[in-house]
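Loading example: each entry is read as two labelled lines plus one structure line.
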Amino acid sequence: MTPAENARPNFRHLIDGFRRMAPLSLFVIVFGLAFGVAAIQQGLSGLETLLMSGLVFAGAAQFATLELWGDSIPLLPLVTITLAINARHLLMGAAFYPHLRDLPSGRRYASLLLLSDANWAMAMAGGTPAARLGILVGGGLALWSTWMIGTGLGVAFGSGIAEPDRFGLDAIMGCFLLAMLIGDRRDLGVLLPWGVAALAALAAMAWLPPHAHVIVGALAGGLVGLLLPPARQETTP
Amino acid sequence: MTLTAANGGVLLAIVIMALATYLTRAGGVFVMSRVAIGPRVERFINAMAGSVLVAVITPMAVNGDGGARMALVATAGVMLVVRKPLPAISAGILIAALWRLMAS
């Protein structure tokens, strides 16, 4: 493959990304189902629930703001909580920027529409720039589809799986993200920034408002990386 | 500021929530496209990328039950040895389920 072909993502990269994300996406159905059930119980209509899952596509924020949806909806808490929980996307997007740099801005911003933890983590874990973009967008489509299927099932059938944690399903996302984090990395130099990130996140959980811990941990880890002497060979993660 | 749920208020609130979320998705890229990326910024970004995940996973390990913790340990162990995500994640889920089966 020539370098030029490497850089430009095409339909094949998209399909490939979709396929690579498909196994994990299936589990997202469970989360979508849980959200559909919870939203209906909160009094949202089926259509509203589906629209929210489809347009917002951010499970944690959707769950966290669920109790705000009543006869009147307080906008400030809604926006504040949404921004606080999703602020990690800012850092994830910034980290992904080098792989988007060469795209025209329309495609650049369109390919961020479905950025979420899982497809971002898998995209960062490797491949050519085109393959990474394919995972971000194609994998995002896979996650979005199953999130919608799950929400639809929850709306239609009510309580499906009553206790997902009984089957270890709640551990999937954590295990997946951890697997992506470790990836092919064998460089012990990352342990210091990661250790600081973990400690900073714990401190933020103890002393700062809810949901601040991701931002605080990520920035602390980034600062340590900045202050450390450059590694012998910088490789993009 | 509140919206009444009637007369399309819910739909408007959903659109506002969606826009706020997209703002976070696009914002980081927007800022980076206006910043000169030198080696220092690159080191910061590289270290931050992994740290985001560390900070997301940490509360799962700290607040989780024994099953969740053992799941993460199993995933890390298998991942370090085999270097393939699927067996690593499967091991994690299996351990969590088994752990809870025994504990309950």
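Chain B has four helices and one strand.
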